[in-house]
Amino acid sequence: MEKILLHDKTFRPFISYSRLEQAIDGIAAKLNEDFKDATDPPQLLCVLNGAVMFTAELMKRLSFPLELISLKLSSYQGTKSSGKVLEVMGLTAPVEGKTVIICEDIVDTGGTIAALKHMLQEKGAKDVRICTMLLKPDVFKARTHLDYVGMEIPNAFIVGFGLDYDELGRNYKDIYVLDE
Ligand code: 5GP
Question: 54, 70 in Cβ contact below 8 A?
Answer without folding.
Answer: no
